[in-house]
Amino acid sequence: VCLALFLGLIFMVLFEIFRINSRRGQIPPGPRPLPFVGTIPSFKKPLEAFRSLSQYGEISAVYIGRKPVIILNTIQVTKEAFVQEAFSGRPFMPLVDWLSKGLGIAMVTFGHSWRQQRRFALHTLRNFGLGKKSVEDRVLEESRYLIAEMLKAEGKSMNPQHDIQNAVSNIICSIVFGERFDYDNKHFSYLLKILSDHFMLSGTTAVQILNLVPFIKHFPGPHQKIMQNFTELLGFIRNEVREHKETLDPDSPRDFIDAYLLEIEKQQKSNEGSTFHEENMVMSALDLFLAGTDTTATTIRWGLIYLIQNPDVQERCHEEIVRVLGYDRLPSMDDRDKLPYTYATVHEIQRCANIVPFGVAHETTQPTKLRGYDIPKGTVIMTNLAAIFSDKKHWKHPDAFNPENFLDENGNFFKPESFIAFSLGPRVCLGETLARTELFLYITSLLQRIHFSWPSEPQTIDMDGVMGVFHFPQSFNIICRSRDTKE
Ligand code: HEM
């Protein structure tokens, strides 16, 4: 029996090698996969490994298990693909399906429900802030709280993670739930902690294995912790919904939840095929809360690292800000043109932090073609931001932190076409305008008022960071000192 099993195994492996080889030429080139396992698990340093895929040309392929995944290595081919609806689906992932039951916005495949939910969320994001400029006011108000909070520990070694995460989250919370939370609110701090754990754990290899072998969800493992965290985050949203129902005034919706409750009522009367129901509301609100918190907060944390490591850039930004605004006037989005170096620095932070280095996976919704390759329906497509953001043809200083990457020869800000941190096409980041407002206003007002340094020099920071769902920096401590306003 053992011999038969052994021979059977050998036969299966040989067959698999034959299958992979026979498809060469039909599938873009890439590193040779291991039978059944694929390519990804053999990556030790994921960022470097991804970047190196550009050696195979504009398009390459890796294998996740037995399935080829197409990697878009340049801005041109990413644009060509992502503007098309045929490339705008999302792959089915057992972990995501287990958690979100196919509801919400971010992980839902292209179709009627996604379109309705996305459109509604965009519309309410605009109405409860962006269009009326009041999101800008909220960020500025919050930046005052953030500066005060960070300076409470002036001169002492402190980890800025919680303060930044809380400040950023308060903006999406005020849009979605109509409230902000104080930095010492224990329950909210706990939620932010499990939110980060959620993104960290969901990106681990152990959890990726669950996507390949879904039945392991019934066994102990990190995925159980993810489910537990997710249930607690859902509990928070459901509680908000319950409170909103009790206090809803139909003539004066306060936020996303109120607007959604009214939309459910409206659609129930008029539209039988409506995708507006309470579970979709809960999941969409959770998507906004999750996507609207750790993305921007993680970018700002990377920003502090780059600014401390490059004190000349930190000083030049500070000088520019003080020259234009003084110490007391807070920045506004209209100041971007007057602060080209600072604005360029904010973009350079995003390029170097590269918090979503492989993008968010897309899937083809129909058979299609790309650069001569036939791409079947249901093929997973990823964009290689790790390669695009360090492409020597497109960046003046691809391998260094240097705001000159976003400045022209006259010192004016310009955005190279390769800068697609928010992706593009029908799936482009829904929170792009919000995130850009937060990044510019928070970073500018912090640099106006605070000088950042390491607690002791020299500090060794692992710039590879940690890969979860996002590219996180490792935990670090800093020293904040108030800028002397009479400097
Ligand atoms: C999707 C980046 C902030 C909400 C995405 C995608 C990227 C991205 C790369 C995937 C696009 C694609 O599939 O091609 C970022 C970055 C941010 C940021 C770098 C901050 C620095 C935000 C914020 C929100 C948000 C503040 C809150 C509203 C979303 C949602 C999606 C998304 C809901 C899913 C869109 C869809 O599937 O239709 N983001 N994002 N993001 N983002 Fe952001």
TrEMBL record:
Keyword Ribosomal protein in record: no
GO biological process: organic acid metabolic process; xenobiotic metabolic process
Cofactors required: heme
Signal peptide start-end: none
A single Gene Ontology CC term: cytoplasm
A Pfam family it matches: p450
InterPro entries: Cyt_P450, Cyt_P450_CS, Cyt_P450_E_grp-I, Cyt_P450_E_grp-I_CYP2D-like, Cyt_P450_sf, Cytochrome_P450_fam2
MF terms (GO), sorted A to Z: heme binding; iron ion binding; oxidoreductase activity, acting on paired donors, with incorporation or reduction of molecular oxygen, reduced flavin or flavoprotein as one donor, and incorporation of one atom of oxygen
Domain of life according to the entry: Eukaryota
Binding site for heme: C429
Major subcellular location class: membrane
Compartments in which it is found: Membrane
Cited PROSITE patterns: CYTOCHROME_P450
Key words of the record: Heme, Iron, Membrane, Metal-binding, Monooxygenase, Oxidoreductase
Similarity comment: Belongs to the cytochrome P450 family.
Protein name per the record: Cytochrome P450 2B4-like isoform X1
